[in-house]
Design a protein that fits this description.
Layout: E1 3-7, E2 10-12, E3 18-25, E4 34-39, E5 46-51, E6 58-60, E7 68-73, E8 78-83, E9 92-100, E10 103-106, E11 110-114
Parallel strand pairs: 2-11
Antiparallel strand pairs: 1-3, 3-8, 4-5, 4-9, 5-6, 7-8, 9-10, 9-11
Length: 116
């Protein structure tokens, strides 16, 4: 079955850097676009970025472009989200996501807390 497992969350100081990873299984990863979302406390889940199946194109929500970078390694079935200059407002649960046919799949999420 389809599985998405995120890693890399934790407590980070403002201004710091974070690498999140999502390991995928159960589907043709190298043919699938992958997305990252996040959900801050008390807020709706928010789309962050998408990367095409080959990794040749990435798109980010405007407010995050420049601090967020998405990459993938199709040989390792892994998608990454790199975040620099972290801010307290980046505190959220981060999810990786893919859509296969008409169905959405989500990982369990990884908590990122930005605080001094």
């Amino acid at each position: 079955q389809v599985q998405l497992v995120e890693h890399g969350g934790g407590l980070v100081q403002p201004g710091g850097f974070l690498q999140l990873s999502c390991i995928a299984s159960g589907f043709d990863f190298s043919s699938t676009s992958m997305s990252w979302f996040r959900q801050a406390p008390g807020k709706k889940r928010q789309w962050v970025s998408v990367i095409t199946s080959s990794g040749g194109r990435t798109i980010y929500i405007d407010s995050m472009e420049g601090r967020f970078t998405t990459a993938r390694d199709n040989a390792e079935n892994t998608v990454y989200l790199y975040v620099n200059n972290l801010k307290p407002e980046d505190t959220a649960v981060y999810y990786c996501h893919c859509r296969l046919g008409e169905k959405d799949y989500w990982g369990q999420g990884t908590q990122v807390t930005v605080s001094s």
